[in-house]
Amino acid sequence: MARYRSIRDLDWPLLIITLVICGMGILQIYSAAHETVWSDAWWKQTLWVGAGVVIMWIMAKVDYHTLLSRAFVFYGLALGGLVLVLAIGGKVFGSKRWISVGGFHLQISEFVKTVIILLVARYLTELKSDRVEGRDLLKLGGLVLVPMLLVAKQPDLGTALCYIPILAIGVFLAGLRWQYLVTIAVILTLVLPAGWHFVLKDYQKARLVTFLDPGRDPRGSGYQVIQSKIAVGAGGMWGRGVTRGTQTKYRFLPVPHTDFIFSSFAEEHGFVGVVVMLGLYFVLLMQIVQNAQMSPDRAGMYICMGVCALLLFHVLVNIGMVAGRMPVTGIPLPLMSYGGSNVLSFFLMLGLVNSVRLQRFVS
Amino acid sequence: MSVIDPESHESRLPSKPPLRDDTKFATAKIAFFQYAAIGIFIFLIAGFWDLQVRNPEVYYEAAERNMIKALPIPAPRGKILDRDGRVIVDNHSSYGLILSRDNLKFDHVQPIAAGLGIDYQRLVARLQRFRSRPRYEPIIKDELTPGELAFVTAHRDPETFPEMEVLRTQRRLYPQEGLAAHVIGYVGEVSEAELDSPEFIKYDQGDVVGKAGIERQYNDILMGKDGQRQVVVDNRGNEHEVASIKEAVPGKSLQLTLDLDLQVVAELAMQGRNGAVVALDPRNGEVLAMVSNPSYDPNKFAGRIRSEDWKEIASNPDNPMLDRAIQAQFAPGSTFKPIMALAGLEKGVIDDDFKIHCPGGATFYGRYFKCWVKQGHGVVDLHKGIVHSCDVFFYNVGNRLGIDNIAEYADMAGLGKKTGIDLPNEATGVVPSSAWKMRLFRQKWYAGETISVSIGQGALTVTPLQLASAIGGLGMGGVWYKPHLVKSEQPEHRIGKVEAANAQKVIYGMWGVVNEGGGTGGRARLPGVSVCGKTGSAQRLSNEAVKAGHKLKDNAWFVAFAPCEAPEIAVSVLWEGGEHGMLAAPVARDVMKAYFDKKAREAKAQAVAGINKAMPPTIPTLPPEPQEEEKPEAPEQQE
User: Fold this and answer.
1) How far B42 CA sits from the closest chain A CA (Å)?
2) pTM of the entire structure?
3) Minimal CA–CA distance to B40: which of A208, A345, A167, A325?
4) Which CATH code fits B68-256?
5) What is this model's ipTM?
6) Could you give the CA distance from residue A321 to residue B279 in angstroms, rounded to a whole number?
7) Which of B295, B334, B469, B572 is catalytic?
8) B261-294+323-601 CATH choice from 3.40.710.10, 3.90.550.10, 3.40.50.2000, 2.140.10.10
9) Disulfide engineering: B401 pairs with which of B100, B186, B405, B439, CB 3.0-4.6 Å?
10) What are B23-41's pLDDT values in tens digits?
11) Which residues of B touch A169 (CB under 8 A)?
12) Which of B10, B30, B67 sits opposite A292 (nearest CB)?
């Protein structure tokens, strides 16, 4: 195999769009947090993005097949990491999500996303079939379920749910009999009510109930939804200007630099800004889809589409939540929300996408 | 290098059908994903369209409401001053507590109520009543004590009870011990029932308005206009900047015609007695003093929220809330006789030569009417009739006049109708006449009934204010000014058709009451001032008392004016159960003495001022040396 991989062959449109989104994110973090204890978050985020670009470059240079071959090693490491989080993780807001490594708070569950993408790609590629059989579906489902449960135990239901679209898109692309779809649907209808009673914590139930009827408890769990909708709506067509959003400035908006950053953005940049931003995300997605289509083999396609599905899920759930169209799940907006693990995790995935792309040029 | 080599796998599993070309694999499914993504983005954009383009105003207003905290700035009420500008009613600063319904958590209400000693049920009811009002309401407690203030400041952090908001308010400060309480009245928060009545239409829930007396009558003048302070707050209620301030417009001060000196003297004189005193200036109708006893302390329920004391006051059998000066309606007894005398002279039924013999009683229409002196007064003319208050004489006068002539003069003197004083809820009293009886009872008037009315009994009832006004006007020779408490440049008055000579005869009789030997009102005599007066002892008719089988003690009345020749002050005194009018006379005397003493003092002060003006003081030199001798030397003095 030739080893000719030029910096020229990177997916530059992808990188530029990514950096534009990150730049808007940093501006918004500054605007949302400049008068608070988070006032230095914007340049920290800048550093994270810088680190992300480096990681992306490194990942792009690695042949993804090498990574796929070690997918189960990564999987084992991931499970170990998640168990470690539960054992010694730092507790914030009543849930254990971080491991402190050299002063950084690493959110293991973020990096597990990449591992799941590799795992699903590896497993489905090895099927050597145009159809997923029931046995394989159960096996793969079981493999994904274990880390999901570990993450849900933290508890971090939002991140745990993120693993599902990766599995779903993989299985969907690999080919699934309609009988299985029906079976899954039936099982879910049976399991969901049980899950409501035995799995969901009270605050999680409250969030769901609130999503269905936010006016029910305006000072309690409905608060975040109502304040987010107020912020978005107050932005109007053109927005109130950077650092001028009162919902953000006076902290009526909860966590405006992390989970609700898009709400803050919508308040200050209005509908026009929202459309531009959603447009950027859409182009980003399509760019990854293009890489999937041009992937040299199925494994590369699974990887790209896994990243795609995860990104779309994040955008749908986070931005949908901001607009009051999705329940509050507490998952960040990729590339915009403040948070090192989240930024690095997505740059890692984008590195994978570039790795797939660069393999095209390997004859 | 790579472990995954599709071709090698394929070759190992020849039974499976050949796989589709990798490059075309799942092309349709990826296209499906793209459409799904487009659908999701449209779904999201639709959400933002809904919020930001279709109705952004709703959310913009909601954002404004979030950050703008509008706190009322209560306007202080105007002061109430006496005729010399002395403060009768003032305000004092206090702290009130608002429970903002904006961020009120219902489970906080109980601990807040407990912490401040407020009745929980009442607090909940109050919060209910204010549900349609702006959010930074209602005030749930007036006048926080230092202890309560400490509770509030210790608990109003965002984690505990952020809905508590301290407000600087002005609270009404009334004189102690109920001085002039009935005249001044009191304030209170406008009640639910009042809000429905037209008089209170311009007020809002939570406004503090006058509830009685001057406070109510002149509420529009006294009540200021509340201001508002709008501040920008964050989600924890911390104030960031002031958005706007609308200053409160304080109420205007009101000067009364009341003279505190006279008021105090009158109240002291009435101490321990139920009844009323009214002193007014018959030359213009200005009320100088107005007392109703027993009184109450308006401070006890002048607050926004009435204390429990209110119930106690309201249920007192002596009825301290009743303003006896304008609301007590009693038979005037013999104090009515001057008006009878005037009517008799005016109608020509009696003259200077008219005399009767009083044997201690007389029979009219088959019924025997007693005179109050059992052994009789002997031969009685008009002057003696008034001086000795001979009942038999006035039975005859009344008999000759007939009820409608009596009613005509009683009406002229202002009895049987509201005087029109600037106080709410004045009573009318009753002046019976044949028309009155026909209207009320559909019955003819019997001449026998006139006899009782002749001595101020029967159906005739008056208020102390009516009587003071009536007698004052008589002293003025038949000019009745409308009594009032706020000075007016051109006081309203009625000029009765009274011949000066006739009025003089009556006034001379009243002079005799006080100043002649045998007069009933000798106790009202004042050195240096000619006082005219008339006593009255009126029976009280009470159904309850009759049923209970015991007779109520007579009411003691005394009316007076002075100086007789040119009256400056007219006084009426009612002492409920005082038995004899002569016992009420000293009260009137005290008030008049206070009036003339003060007048003399002022004249003297003016004279001194005049002298000083004529001889301006020379430039002051060194202050006088302290005089050693004046130092009190206690031990020596003791010896």
Assistant:
1) 10
2) 0.72
3) A325
4) 3.90.1310.10
5) 0.93
6) 78
7) B334
8) 3.40.710.10
9) B405
10) 566 788 899 999 999 999 9
11) 33
12) B30
